[in-house]
Amino acid sequence: MATPLHDDICQLVRDPINVAALVHHVRAPEDGAIFTFDGFVRNQSHSRATLYLDYEAYETMALAKMREIAAQLHEKYKIHRVAIAHRLGRLQIGETSVFIAVSAPHRAAAFDACRFAIDTLKRTVPIWKKEYFEDGAVWADGELPPAPAATPHAKPAS
Amino acid sequence: MATPLHDDICQLVRDPINVAALVHHVRAPEDGAIFTFDGFVRNQSHSRATLYLDYEAYETMALAKMREIAAQLHEKYKIHRVAIAHRLGRLQIGETSVFIAVSAPHRAAAFDACRFAIDTLKRTVPIWKKEYFEDGAVWADGELPPAPAATPHAKPAS
Amino acid sequence: MATVSQSISLKVLFFGRLKEIVGHAEESLASTDAATIEQLFALYAARHPELAKFRPSLVASRNQEFAAWDTPLHTGDEVAFLPPVSGG
Amino acid sequence: MATVSQSISLKVLFFGRLKEIVGHAEESLASTDAATIEQLFALYAARHPELAKFRPSLVASRNQEFAAWDTPLHTGDEVAFLPPVSGG
Fold first, then answer.
1. Which of B95, B132, C57, D79 sits CB 3.0–4.6 Å from B51 for a disulfide?
2. Which residues are within 8 A (CB) of A154 and not within 5 positions of it... i.e. 6 or more apart?
C-alpha cells in the first residue's frame, strides 16, 4: 500500500460526494489548472431504463487501491494534488458515483493524470455496481483486474 | 460562425465565472460523465511572482470562435452539452480565467472533447493576457492562430 | 516430498454475485485443505457448485493485494474472490 | 490592367501590444491605398514604424474571420490585427 506522501484525498462515502470541497482541496495558488471527472448515474443502461444503482466495495482494499492510484499519479505526472471519492450504497439517477480532481501547474499533466486515474480506478478498484430496472436487477459487466498469473516463488502444492 | 444547434453556453464575463451554474447546465439524466477544465491565475510565471493579470479580447470574434469550438465538439465527439466561459478584465491569483465543462453518455468522448476545447481555445480565440509583476508588466507569450496563407481567388493587387 | 497438512485459519470474503451465491459476504474458515487460493476456491465450489462456472472470470486477493491462484496461504490470511469490477 | 482606386471606409482594430503602439483600440479609416489587408497594415506601419517588426508574428482578420494578408478589402469591412493569442 502506498504511503500518502502528498496532500491527497481518497475516500469512500455513503452520503452525497462533496464535489466543491474536493475541488477546493486540490486548488492552490501555485497551480493553474484543474481537471475534474464527475461520473454519475445515467437514466438508462443498454437502452433499459434504470431505476437506481447499488454500489458495494471491498472497502479496505478499495481504499488502498485508490491511494495507490494517487501515488502513481505523482510518480507519472507533474501534478500537485489529487482527490478521488467514490460513493457506496443506493444511488438515484443523476447522483455522482465517482469524482476525481487533479491540480497541476500546467494543464497537460492534470489532464493525463485525471484520465489515468478514472481508467485505472475502473479496472483495478474492487467496487461493484448492481443495476436495478423495472423488470429485475443485474450486476454490471465489469473489468477483470490484472492479477499475477503465478506466484514467483510458489512452492508446488503438495 | 456556427449556428448554436445545441444547448451550449459560450460566454465572456467580467465578474467571477459561475462554475457551478455551468456544470449544472451541462448535467442531464441521459449523461453519465462530465469532464471539466478550470484554468486559474497562478502565483508565478517563469519564476517571477505574479501580482495580477489583465485579460482583453476581441469580444465579438472571441465569442464567435468559442461557438465554433462548441460546434466542432459536437461534430467530432459523441457529447451532449458544452459550456465554455472566459473572464476578462483584472484577475487576482487563484481566480478562474477559463472554465470548460463537457457532458456525455460515456467518458471517453467527454474527455477528448474537453481537451480539444481548451487546446483549440488557447490557439484560436482572440484573447490576450498581460501579466503584472513587481517590476513591470508583459504581454504573455502566445500562440499564433492558424490563418489562411493566401486568399484562394484574390485578384492581384493593382 | 510429503507435506504435513496443518489446519490454518482464514477469513474469506465474497463480493457481488459470489456473495449472492454463497449467501453471505464473509466467513471464517479453519481447514487443512486450503494450502493455496486455488484449493480454497475448490472447497467453496464443492459446497456451491454454481461458483465453479465463475472461476475463469474471477481474480483473487490475499491480504488486500491481487494474488495468483497458486499463492500459498497462511493462518490469519484474508482471502477474497472478486468478480470483474464495475466501479466508477 | 489598371484599377481605378476608390476610397473605402474601414473599421480597424488593434489588440494587445499593437493597441499600445497605435495608442488606441479602434479607428475608422477612409483610404484609397488599402486594397488589401497587407496594404492597410503598411499604412499603419508607415505611421508607427515600431509596428513593422511585429508583422511576422501577427495574423489578421476581416469581419471576424482569420484572413490572408492578400485579402481584398471592401467598404464597411472590419479589419483587426491580432498578436499571438494568450487566452485560457
1. B132
2. C36, C68, C70, C71, C72
Distance from CA of D9 to the nearest CA of B (A): 18
* Residue A58 domain boundaries: 9-133
pLDDT the model gives residue B4 = 47
B158–D2: do the CB atoms touch at under 8 Å?
yes
Interface A-C, measured as beta-carbon pairs within 8 A, has a size of: 114
Query: Any CB–CB contact under 8 A between B95 and chain A?
Result: no
C-alpha distances in angstroms, B24 versus B21, B28, B100, C62? 5, 8, 12, 42
Domains in chain C and their CATH numbers? 8-82 (3.10.20.30)
Nearest residue of chain B to residue A24 (CA atoms):
B94
Mean of pLDDT values over A149-157 = 67
The Cα–Cα gap between A83 and A7 comes to 9
**CATH number assigned to the domain comprising residue A100:** 3.90.1170.40
Residue B4 lies in a domain: no
Q: How many domains does chain B have?
A: 1
Considering only CA atoms, which of B35, B4, B28, B22 is closest in space to residue B80? B28
Chain A residues 36-65 with CB within 8 Å of chain C = 39, 55-58, 60-62, 64
The answer to whether B21 and B84 have CB atoms below 8 angstroms apart is: no
Provide the greatest CA pair distance for chain A: 60
Residue type present at position A96:
T
Mutation pick from B30, B36, B41, B79 vs chain A, by most beta carbons of A within 10 Å, is B36
Report pLDDT digits (tens) over B109-132. Answer: 999 999 999 999 999 999 999 999
How many C-beta neighbours within 10 Å does residue C63 have?
Answer: 15
